[in-house]
Write a structure and sequence with these properties.
Barwin-like endoglucanases, 28% helix
Amino acid sequence: MSTLLIQLCIALALHGGTEQHGVAPHYAKGVMERVAARRGLPAEACMVSSPIHPVGAHVWVWGERTKVLLRCLVADVSGPNDRARHLRTGRVIELGYASTAAICGNTTGPARACPVWVMRIREE
């Protein structure tokens, strides 16, 4: 386990926040970048969609299989008709295509092949 991941777990325990475990499907190539641009957000190396975190927030995503930890911008959120299903099926985030290989290990597998942990430290 990386030192940064351990530090994040300690910060989460001390400051509060959210922590989720589930799976991460991904957007098609270029879609997350277009969504971010439409929302007036700067493009970042890692961008995600979240069913619980607001647009503009940052979350930490740890790929359980790859052991890669990235800080990601929430550029999109689950639609009102999709949110409950995403939570029920364990889709804790949807990755932008650009960060999928790093977090999941490939860009072709099903969501269940990409187990992740998502953390957001409460900002005071």
